[in-house]
Amino acid sequence: MTTTAKVPVPIDKSAEPVAVPRRAALKAPIMLGVVTLLVALLVGLGARAGDTTFQLATDTDFFDLPEITLPSTATVWTLVVLLAACTAASALLASRGRRTPLWLVGLFALLAMTAFLTWAAADESLTVIGLLGGSITLAVPLVFGALGGVLGERAGVVNIAIDGQLLFGAFAAAMVGTLVGSPWGGLVAAMLAGALVALVLGFFAITYFVDQVIVGVVLNVLVIGLTSFLFGQVLTENPDTLNAPEHFSRLPIPVLGQIPVIGPVLFRQTILVYLMYVAVAVVAWALYRTKWGLRVRAVGEHPKAADTVGIKVNRTRYTTLLIAGLVAGAGGATYTLVSVPQFGEEMTDGAGYIALAAVIFGRWDPIRATLAALLFGFASNLQLALSVIGSPVPSQFMLMLPYVVTIIAVAGLVGASRAPAADGVPYRKE
Amino acid sequence: MSTNDETQPAPAGAPAAGAVKDPKEPPQQPGRFDGVLREIVAGNAMVAVLSVFLAVVVGSLMILLTDENVRDTAGYIGARPTDFFSAVWTSISDAYSALFRGAVYNTNLEGFQGRIRPLTETLKFAGPLILAGLGVGLAFRAGMFNIGGRGQMLLAGAAAGWVGVSVDLPTVLHLPLAVLAGALAGALWAGIAGFLKAQSGAHEVIVTIMLNYVGYYLVFYALSKQGLLQAPGSLNPKSQPMPESVVLPKLLGDRFNLHAGFLIALVAVAVVWWLLNKSALGFRFRAVGENPDAARAAGINVGRTYLVVMLIAGGLVGLAGVNQILGTTTSGVTVDLDAGIGFDAITVALLGRSRPLGILAAGLLFGGLKAGGFSMAAAEGIPVEIVLVIQSLIVLFIAAPPLVRAIFRLPKEATA
């Protein structure tokens, strides 16, 4: 894992295979080993008898999948053995100087998660559908925010203001949604609010060459101040006329929604989730498969070269940033049009920073960043689910989990990745 | 617009982070620090003053737009414009005089002691802001962006608080021990980010953000667990109040809240100034911050520099946490003991351009805004968040001198 804009060089060097091949390859097996040990310790010290039941079905599926009941202790130990096998495979690859492939890491994560769930839900039953479906709901603002971040950074503008865009989007959605009386009006307002924050970011960062990290952080503070001020001055005075937006309701898709497991998880959601699917696909396609995307990436990697061939660098950055703002703002609408019935002060609670982490975690790639955001959503929902069935771990440690996992992943698994070369660098025409 | 500022690369001495950003940016001209001096002399102080002025103007507009009296009178502005203007005047002058009374000198009270009390409150608020601002600014100078102030303050406050309630010693030993424990906890927490960056290149922005959350829940856990930090027999996530022997002494007697934490902040300013400008270590920090590649080529161990600077930065932020728990909120450790200072510190460091004296000035200004903001909220019912708006606008404007110059039609900066 390298870095965003700030200090790309030193780490690139140390992480390049040429410089220290053995060490880079060893990071993965070490991390996997640590996690395997942790799981083994957990089970070894806190052995829990009983059976774990996984529920996979809902009432309206085409056909019902049976419940899966597993003896907790035996299952967990089997999984620990499999985890150890994955670690060994990774170590073997490392000893030959090869990197651990991503699918192995994915398999490992799946096994580790199953082991943990089996252990935590011993003598209980876990609704897998609720766990996964809820994760997607929670991940929506993160995914939109991460997409906005990816777009901006691919064009060479570091966007730390994602949190501000989400928060301002949430605020605009609540207020305009109530005034217009339709969640669609709220959604449009949220997108425009996100774009407005992006415009200010661009104004200072592109036109006035102010350090992009500074502008981003300051804009977040500004939006918190602005929305909290208006909330205290205006919204709390007139809660019914200004802060009671109508909600998007759940909109099951007829046939797809009835496929067991996949249906209820992916296709019985609100329209915002479907928009999210579309946004991910469109952003990935536009960035890699269109002339526009090529220009955006050129401007982010080598603005001078792009300028030489006639691409308007700063105009491209502005438009990309505005589109990114529209996307991130839509994520903000989730807060007030889906999750909670009204706007509250600082209600994003730093989600924009998590989205930023997803951008870097996902190596500035829309699909990977989306997956990272989904992972964060899953981790937050896992904690909710376990608090319902009564987790053996203190809830604070469950709440901590996504953040610890991120640190481990960023330090150990992401490996050598690289920010767009001109990320964070204002372009001055000579 | 780019032509506006051709002669002045790098956003007007934006913290070193700006300068480190990109190896491809034209290398800093020799005599950068001469340049800084010249900047101040040649009118950047003017830009700073005008930035504050602009921010206050925008803040005033917000107050006006949301003031009911002003809105009502605006309804019949054609008929009786004087009503409108007097409402505007009342609204603004009331707000800012409340701010002034809360931050500097309260003319409504009798006796000099009562009147000067707000100024001591400002200093009290400024202490932790300066300390945390130094922590963020120092890291900036070495090219590290420390967003982890919140976590570092919480851990530090919890550690100092734990020493406070669990150890029984005379003040002479107890207080220094608690302060040290806090600073160490902050240093270690920030050190994780420095260590990971040095070892595996993990981006410090992500790691410090994540450590904020981890630290929060860790302290939350300790506060809800009997035998760790939770007050015995209590169900609330809160510790016992700090015993007398660890409370920072009041500087001006019991009538004032100003405590010795402010002195710690002043000493820290001096130490950081010495460290950055006079010591070999500080030179290494700056070298790495300016250009890690060149620093490495010159034989500086860049990874170790990252670790060391984060340890020191975390220690400074930790002292801000100590300042809170042993000075300002001695009623016990809670998860809110950071009071937003960890994030405010970023704006303080940015406004102070990561230079110790600048941070001192910025901390005093923001301390005043904070003290005044509370009084403005109490007296005029204006949400205290207006202060956040003004603060962030000040930083934005100061970071873009050409914009301020354009707005006030000032001449371009004298060409270097």
UniProtKB/TrEMBL annotation, chain A:
It is found in: Cell membrane. Pfam families: BPD_transp_2. It comes from Nocardioides daeguensis. The chain crosses the membrane at residues 30-50, 70-94, 101-122, 128-150, 157-180, 186-206, 213-235, 271-288, 321-341, 347-364, 371-391, 397-419. The lineage of its organism: Bacteria, Bacillati, Actinomycetota, Actinomycetes, Propionibacteriales. Its main location: membrane. It comes from the Bacteria. This is ABC transporter permease. Keywords: Cell membrane, Membrane, Transmembrane, Transmembrane helix. InterPro entries: ABC_transp_permease (IPR001851). The keyword Transmembrane helix applies. It is a multi-pass membrane protein. The keyword Transmembrane applies. CDD domains: TM_PBP1_transp_TpRbsC_like.
From TrEMBL, chain B:
Keywords: Cell membrane, Membrane, Transmembrane, Transmembrane helix. InterPro entries: ABC_transp_permease (IPR001851). CDD domains: TM_PBP1_transp_TpRbsC_like. Residues 9-19 have a biased composition (Low complexity). Residues 1-32 are annotated as: Disordered. It is a multi-pass membrane protein. It comes from the Bacteria. It holds the Pfam family BPD_transp_2. It is found in: Cell membrane. The keyword RNA-binding does not apply. The chain crosses the membrane at residues 41-65, 125-142, 179-198, 205-223, 256-276, 306-326, 359-378, 384-404. This is ABC transporter permease. It comes from Nocardioides daeguensis.
